[in-house]
Amino acid sequence: MVSGRNLKRVHFINRTLLGRQRKVVDMGTEDRNEYVDIGEDELLVQSKYMTETIEERNDLIRACAKLYKEAGGSVPALRVSAHQKLVEWPLRSPMPAQFTTLDAAQPWVLYWTANALTLTGSDLVDQEMQQRLVKKLEALFTSLGYAGGLHQLPNIACTYAAIETFVLCDSSPDAWSRINRVALYQFLLRLKEPEGGFRTVCPVGEVDARAMYTVLSVASLLQILTPDLAKGCADFLLGCQTYEGGFGACPGGDEAHGGYTFCAVAALAIIGALDRADTRALLDWCSARQKNEERGLSGRTNKLVDSCYSFWVGGTAAILEAYGYGECIDKDAMASYLLTCCQDTYGMRDKPGKPADFYHTNYALLGLAVTQYNFAAGETPADIECTPIGTPDICPINPVYGLPAKNVRSFVAHFRQA
Question: What domains are there in the chain, each with its CATH number?
Answer without folding.
Answer: 76-417 (1.50.10.20)
